[in-house]
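User: Hey, quick favor. My workstation is busy. Could you predict this chain's structure for me?
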Amino acid sequence: RRWLVKEGVAAVLFTSSGDGGTIFIWGNGGAASGELPSIKVSAESYGRIARILEKNISVTLELEMQNTFYDNPNVSNIIAEIPGTDPKLKDEVVMMGAHFDSWTYGTGATDNATGSAMLMEAMRILKALNLQPRRTIRIALWTGEEQGALGSEAYVAQHYRDWKSAPSTTKPEYDSFSVYFNLDGGTGKIRGIFELGNTAPSQIFDAWMGPFKEMGMKTVSPWDIGGGDDNSFRHVGLPSFGFIQDPIEYESRTHHSSADVYERIQSEDMQFNTAVLASFAWQAAQRDEKFPR
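Assistant: No problem, here it is.
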């Protein structure tokens, strides 16, 4: 990049990996100011520019970019809960989470406004039914996930254990934590659950899926998909799981793209998913024992 600046380059254009005019975007993991501006353009636009240049015809581009760098870029997670009612179990926590930060090319509809909305709706359902859970049911809408699960990692470090510190010691709330469920797979219907390497609760999950099996939720997978807010909990030894969802257009069209907009949402699938979330949270809260670790 120093060489490019020295040569008088004003900006660098990259081609997007998508087609149909879709632009996929990723960050660089940092916020250093003063670097050479970079922008992704659609494959079609990039191809047109390249073909013109191959004919030795000059191309003039006008580029406007607006960025703001903050001295103290602190942001906040959003936490809400339904308090437990069992005198012996009310301090134990069943937790569900989804990140609410997104990329700016679209509106973040499937990554991850859908996950955030479904968690809030699941909590609304539990409240509307006037249920009294034995354990506390807590949801978290995480920030900073796209920069490396920063919001959930900070929360876990504050309340349970900071696995990056030395020595890494557990906090008082660690022993009262039961289970965490993560939702970050787009708008598609839930088909099962990823155990993320912890196969101890396989029979528990199979039983919980009973009412939903006729509607297509049948799979308990030991696979570790990794990479999301679930990692923040697993890294410190807390039970953490993720849901298997129909991909719809997630990887091919909407994930981190200019097409991640409201029109791509599957509302019927989301309604089904909220019932699953409410059911799993409730059953986890009612167990006699904490989740197996």
